[in-house]
Amino acid sequence: MSVLTRVSKAVVAALVVLASSGIIAAADKHKVRDYDDTAGYSPDRAQNRLVREVRHELVMLPYYGVFDNLAYRVDGSTVTLFGQVTRPTLKSDAGNVIRRIEGVTNVVNNIEVLPLSPNDDQIRRAVYRSIYGYPALSTRYGFQALPSIHIIVANGHVTLEGVVANEGDRNITNIQANGVPGVFSVTNNLRVEK
Asked: Exposed, middle or buried by CB within 10 Å (0-12, 13-18, 19+), for 70?
């Protein structure tokens, strides 16, 4: 088999993986015209590039995991970070990587560092096992590099963040989290894919 054939098969395989994960579909939804007939360069294109780069940098943080939740808002050249993290270094790392993006002039870091608590750590592990140990959820969400269901625990109160495929998965996740001993309350902020 020639090198060109192997490379072609690898490219096709990569496109299949990207298409199945929704990355290509998501990129198509945000297509913007490069030029407007009257104004020339479109500022929407620069804004969309900035949004994509911010998301990429946050997802690529080395210690960002299932027990953290990061969100952001881009207003012109200002990026505001939100969410909750279990490690203080993740908050500072997020702010630092966003500051280095070309076009970002200001970063407002509103990320909350969750309190250290052995009880919360125990609840995190138990809720994780309950959700990702459930067969219907583990096969769909558990085998990703960064699972789409994030488990946030603060003082015994659980918040579920992220995206699920359907309302049934959202409800099953809520039931599984509520069944864990020691959990005071569960707030289900999971969004259903459109």
From this structure: buried
Give CA–CA dist 65/114, Å, rounded. 14
Q: What is the pTM of this model?
A: 0.73
Computed over its alpha carbons, how large is the radius of gyration of the chain?
20
The token pair at 133 is: 């140990």
CA–CA distance, 184 with 56 (Å, rounded to integer): 34
- Residue 93 CA to residue 58 CA, distance in Å, equals 9
Burial, 157: exposed, middle or buried (Cβ in 10 Å; 0-12, 13-18, 19+)? middle
**Residue 32, phi then psi, degrees to nearest 5:** -130, 140
Residue with tokens 């072609």: 8
pLDDT digits (tens, 9 = 90+) for 107-141: 999 999 999 999 999 999 999 999 999 998 988 88
pLDDT tens by residue, 51-86: 999 999 999 999 999 999 999 999 988 999 999 999
- Residue 31: CB atoms within 10 A of its CB come to 9
> Rounded distance, CA 159 to CA 177, Å?
9
Longest dimension (CA), the chain: 62
Classify 172 in phi/psi space as left (phi over 0), alpha (psi -120 to 50) or beta.
alpha
